[in-house]
Design the sequence.
């Protein structure tokens, strides 16, 4: 008898308060990296009605106008008018940034790339599955496409009453471990106060949901569009935002494990970011090489130490060869020291702001080097 179950993932738009903070943090990192690719950056952000606070550590030879970066980022997202309850032109911006601790710096500032130690201790996971072309789980894949569609329809003026904040949630029915149909779709979108709710629900279904999930829905699919009614008050006016509060949205939507560290605002000497990208790269290449149908890779590090303290490959019983053999091949094929990861994935570039909305993985963008399938043939030799 077929085993059926439901799995749900969510995504948020770039105007969601937490995502606003992620994008500000990464925009500051990019601004620094445009001039100083050896800088060390760890920047957090908090926002609420009428203000943004930027705090953290920054060691660099260059100067960045943080206020300007914050305001430009807010306006690009769409917070450019006081009627929205938040305006990048006039909001307060408070900056509290100091240099990185020299004791931490001593572990990561090395002449030889191979000697660069991890910027902190921690454990990181990467995941991949063959259930979509992007090697991402179906629920998070669809959830991201829905929020991106919601933003595109707003940006390009198709639904003029939409505002920047919004969320999606998708429940997929699995049968014997494979996605079969979409059971439930939820969209909650920020909007102009005068739009009739019936019109909004009809047009969101037509312009957002059906173009994205149309082939996977049936007569039993449930739709919840602004299920609580009006969402005229949104963005930082409605909810506080914090950097790093959407770590499951950023990764695999609840599939696989998570080490707890966020990505945004951190330069790649922080293994929270670089090792997570590497773990995804490894897992994706393993699945693409057909060594397993799904794969999770864990890497763990000690602060200041280059070699990982542990490497784990978990394939959930879908492996075609023993997991121990796959793990041995991983150590042989992939660089795992922080400095080597940074060099191999070419991470010292101003590419991070665009990672801070719609997921860090499963994106078809040449700057997302961790998505490359360049080790498939080497791994296939293990078969």
Sequence:
């Amino acid at each position: 008898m077929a085993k059926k179950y439901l799995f749900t993932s969510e995504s948020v738009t770039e105007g969601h308060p937490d995502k606003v903070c992620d994008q500000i943090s990464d925009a500051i990192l990019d601004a620094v990296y445009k001039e100083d690719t050896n800088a060390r950056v760890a920047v957090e952000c908090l926002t609420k009605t009428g203000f943004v606070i930027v705090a953290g550590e920054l060691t660099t030879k260059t100067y960045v106008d943080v206020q300007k970066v914050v305001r430009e980022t807010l306006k690009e997202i769409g917070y450019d008018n006081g009627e929205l309850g938040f305006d990048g032109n006039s909001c307060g911006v408070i900056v509290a940034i100091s240099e990185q601790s020299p004791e931490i710096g001593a572990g990561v500032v090395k002449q030889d790339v191979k000697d660069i130690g991890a910027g902190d201790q921690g454990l990181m996971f990467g995941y991949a599955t063959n259930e979509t072309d992007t090697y991402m789980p179906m629920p998070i894949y669809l959830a991201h496409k829905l929020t991106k569609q919601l933003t595109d329809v707003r940006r390009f003026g198709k639904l003029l009453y939409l505002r920047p904040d919004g969320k999606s949630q998708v429940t997929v029915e699995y049968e014997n471990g494979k996605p079969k149909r979409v059971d439930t779709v939820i969209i909650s979108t920020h909007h102009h106060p005068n739009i009739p709710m019936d019109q909004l629900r009809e047009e969101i279904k037509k312009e957002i949901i059906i173009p994205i999930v149309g082939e996977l829905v049936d007569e039993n699919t449930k739709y919840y569009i602004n299920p609580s009614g009006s969402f005229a008050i949104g963005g930082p006016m409605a909810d506080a935002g914090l950097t790093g509060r959407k770590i499951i949205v950023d990764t695999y939507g609840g599939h696989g494990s998570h080490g707890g560290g966020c990505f945004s605002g951190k330069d790649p000497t922080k293994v929270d970011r670089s090792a997570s990208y590497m773990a995804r790269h490894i897992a994706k290449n393993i699945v693409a090489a057909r060594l397993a149908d799904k794969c999770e890779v864990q890497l763990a590090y000690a602060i200041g130490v280059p070699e990982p303290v542990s490497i784990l490959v978990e394939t959930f019983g879908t492996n075609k060869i023993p997991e121990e053999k796959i793990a041995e091949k991983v150590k042989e094929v992939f660089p795992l020291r922080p400095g080597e990861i940074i060099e191999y994935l070419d991470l010292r570039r101003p590419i991070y702001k665009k990672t801070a909305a719609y997921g860090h993985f499963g994106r078809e963008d040449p700057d997302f080097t961790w998505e490359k399938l360049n080790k498939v043939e080497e791994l296939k030799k293990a078969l």
